[in-house]
Amino acid sequence: MTTIAIIGAGPGLGASAARRFGREGFSAALISRTQDNVDRLAAELGNDGVRARGYAADVQDRERVVEALKSAADDLGTIEVLQYSPAPRREFLRPVLDTGVDDFAAAVEFSLHGSVTAVQQVLPGMTELGKGTILLVNGGSAATPNGNVAGTSVAFAGESAYGTMLHDALAPRIHVGQLVVPGTIGGGDPMFAPDALAEKLWTMHVQRGNFRVTVGPA
What we know:
Layout: E1 3-7, H1 13-22, E2 27-32, H2 35-47, E3 52-56, H3 62-76, E4 79-84, H4 101-129, E5 132-139, H5 150-170, E6 174-181, H6 194-207, E7 212-214
Parallel strand pairs: 1-2, 1-4, 2-3, 4-5, 5-6, 6-7
Helix pairs in contact: 1-6, 3-4, 4-5
């Protein structure tokens, strides 16, 4: 059974990605901090015909991330696609002069250490399958540092560098891509609607092109 693991799964992009990949026969492992939330989402997806199961893990708790991904692979099948898209926490979105060492450290733990932990857990299974896709989803500060959101600007830069190196090291059998979304997901702009972004993630998976795709006018 083919499985997509979505870290940071919620009712917006996570749900849309699960439905989009589910239409292609993927099972969905939904990973987020609160078990009740992912259980509820899994039930909704089940009503839509998507085989889904929820797992609770905070991306800043590396052991729980590993346990969740291991359980997902055991329950649903080897993870072929990993989507790393947890929404940044409020404390990572402060101006640079209001952001201290502990704030930066937490942001890096969230975006970089969390993604590395997840990738290292799923990579052996993808290698055994002989194929796989790793999808990193970030805001606009991943491409252009923004002093008003200093934590994510620094952390996303590290995640981007890691993803770029993975892209070069793992191609062509395993594709690594980054979707940069310079706007509010589900904020009313059709370009940033969850279903539209999920379609882009599916295209990145099947076309396996360049590392970075930025949402914007054609």
